[in-house]
Amino acid sequence: MSLKISHVEENTELLGPFKRFVIWVWGCCFDCEGCVAQNTRHGAYAEIEVEDLAKKILQSDCEGVTISGGEPFLQAQELFRLIEIIKQEKNIGVIIYSGFTLNEIKNNPDILNLLSVADILIDGRYEKNLDDGRAYIGSSNQVIHYLTDRYKVIGPKFYDKNKKRKAEIKFTSSQAVLIGVPSKEVFKVWQSVKEKTGGTQNAF
Ligand code: SF4
């Protein structure tokens, strides 16, 4: 069983509490105006065996994983299996960003199993007109759902509405990667980086 991914990043604190292993899955069924993750929809992807990715995550010292994209629930079975393998060895936390709303997921029995292993779901399409600059969230229609108690204490402080957005552009030998939910200023810089470097990978 393999997963189509756009990028992975170890040990980032930009997409959830504590150090996280972030997976940007490839492919999305939505087409939100102003989507900052264009390359996870139209760019290159890699296919990785679920067991191999699980090993990599278990070797990291991350508290948990954040799954973004792209649309994670398009690969719900693969991601469910990934989390299932990891949880046999380590009690990790799971945060998922999805364009589907919680209700849409609850009404689709084919993808419910992935929801069952998530501690937090941040849901809903990105609405450019509702982008109020809140940290960790693309637009104000998106809701942070605490599905378990795991982050219920730290969560409200971590996702404080008054925090400013933090994101970083990371350069590797072959690509530039945007990590985190960018402010308008960072997004402008990112767009010019993409124009100059071409073929870069972006991430949300
Ligand atoms: S759901 Fe996310 S990845 Fe998909 S189009 Fe909307 S913003 Fe982009």
TL;DR of this structure?
The protein is of the alpha/beta class and 204 residues long.
Could you name the key traits of this structure?
single chain; 204 residues; alpha/beta; TIM Barrel; seven-stranded mixed sheet; two-stranded antiparallel sheet; binds iron/sulfur cluster
* Poorly predicted ranges: none
Can you tell me the overall shape? globular
Instruction: Count every helix, treating DSSP H or I runs of 4 or more residues as helices.
Output: 7
Beta-strand content bin: 15-25%
Q: Going by CATH, what is the homologous superfamily?
A: Aldolase class I
**Small-molecule components bound:** iron/sulfur cluster
CATH first level:
Alpha Beta
End-to-end separation: 25 Å
The rounded Rg comes to 16 Å
Examine the secondary-structure arrangement and name the CATH architecture.
Alpha-Beta Barrel
**Major sheet attributes:** 7 strands, mixed
Q: Got a strand count?
A: 9
